[in-house]
Amino acid sequence: MQDDIPYLLLTPGPLTTTAQVKAEMQVDLSTWDRDYNDIVQEVRRILVALATNEPGYTSVLMQGSGTFSVEATIGSVIPPTGKLLVVNNGAYGARIAAIAERLKIPVTVVETMETSYPLEEFTIALSTDPAITHVAFVHCETTTGMLNPIEQWCQIAKEHDCQIILDAMSSFGGMPIAMHDLGVDFLISSANKSIQGVPGFGFVICREEAIKQSAGYARSVCLDLYDQWRVMEENEGKWRFTSPTHVLLAFRQALQELADEGGIAARCQRYAKCQTRLVAGMGELGFRTLLEAEDHSPIITSFFFPEEPWFEFNAFYDLLKQRRFVIYPGKVSQHETFRIGTIGDLTVDDVDDLLVAINESVIALKKYTTN
Ligand SMILES: *Cc1c(COP(=O)(O)O)cnc(C)c1O
Q1: Top-confidence residue, 293 or 95
Q2: Cα 41 to Cα 38, 48, 163, 252, distances in angstroms
Q3: Which helix (H) or strand (E) holds 203?
Q4: How far is the CA of 67 from the centre of ligand 1 (A)?
Q5: pLDDT value, residue 4
Q6: Which among 29, 64, 12 has a CA at the least distance from the CA of 249?
Q7: Choice from 73, 139, 190, 332 to test ligand 1 binding pocket (greatest atom count within 8 A of CB)
Q8: How many CB atoms lie within 10 A of CB 368?
Q9: 11 Cβ contact partners less than 8 Å away, ≥ 6 residues apart
Q10: Which CATH number does 20-260 carry?
Q11: How far apart are CA 335 and CA 37, in angstroms?
């Protein structure tokens, strides 16, 4: 593999970004500079506008990968007397539960297999435990590609007067999410997922009253979401500690490209087209999906390992990589599966090229086994 041939990342972040997003990072800006802080404020405003047109919402950016923003939120918004309910039907739900446990926040976990989601158990947990003040769950469970029933969960949570923390990491920017209508109090995502920026920070869009209420609750200094928000508000775009300046410039360009594409609905359509094409083409090649079609998100799709003597995942991965396609190698699923992401700067033509490469790789694998 030559260094100068670009890979196409079919992974759920980092993902393939445009040349212009990468080019924006060529400028050095000071983290204390007014011009830079104005860009931060602009980005914060655009993020809120992508989530809702209602007044009373704000946003805060946080250094680190997406999980840092999840941990910042879980660790900062639940009062010392509070209790959290977490839904776990995949690796990212499990991670939220692990964060709460590590921070010694009282937590109840409602669990199911990763190919389903709990609805009845969710309702029972809330109606039998009045101590629960907050619920947290994942929108698109990137482990499998499962689209969780957040409309129903949000409604049940609101009926029990709970604040809602939504991990919309992989979906925000790539699927419409009506934050206000759903009653979501804290929506978490990051720069390097469906907005198509590069990695370096996450963000939380929040109901302003809810974040104000959380002053003093944080169990960490660096990951104090309220304090980060307060400093950004009072100093109009100043981060508390060194900010990822280059990443933010790339992110502003990514937001512009999202608008140029026609906004979230248009991007969702492109992702859905790619995902539909991928599943159809993979089906023709004999690959079956882990989930039922109605549970799929357009973000990422899990495929069963073929139960054939010729299939060996690492060899398959390498053959695809030689053809410049990088699929998702992490095996966090309860099943023998691999995953292919359909987010990022990707078209249906790219998916067709990928399908050709997969076909070639399968032929090569079969040849190795028979020789
Ligand atoms: C990517 C992702 C995260 C965060 O992962 P990082 O590796 O910390 O960026 C959290 N939740 C979901 C659903 C994700 O897809």
Answers
A1: 95
A2: 5, 11, 26, 11
A3: strand 201-207
A4: 6
A5: 59
A6: 29
A7: 190
A8: 11
A9: 326, 327, 328, 341
A10: 3.40.640.10
A11: 46
pTM reported for the whole predicted model: 0.97
Read off the pLDDT of residues 180-227 as tens digits, 9 standing for 90 and up. Answer: 999 999 999 999 999 999 999 999 999 999 999 999 999 999 999 999
For ligand 1, mutation pick of 15, 167, 301 (most atoms within 8 Å of CB): 167
Going from N- to C-terminal start, the domains of the chain cover: 8-13+263-370, 20-260
For ligand 1, whether the C-beta of 65 sits within 6 Å is yes
Indicate whether residue 167 lines ligand 1 (CB < 6 A).
yes
The alpha carbon of 170 and the centre of ligand 1 are apart by a number of angstroms equal to 7
pLDDT at 5: 62
Q: Within its chain, how far is the Cα of 16 from the centroid?
A: 15
Q: Which class is 8-13+263-370 in CATH? A: alpha beta
Question: What is the pairing mode between strands 57-63 and 201-207?
Answer: antiparallel
Nearest CA to ligand 1 atom 9: 66
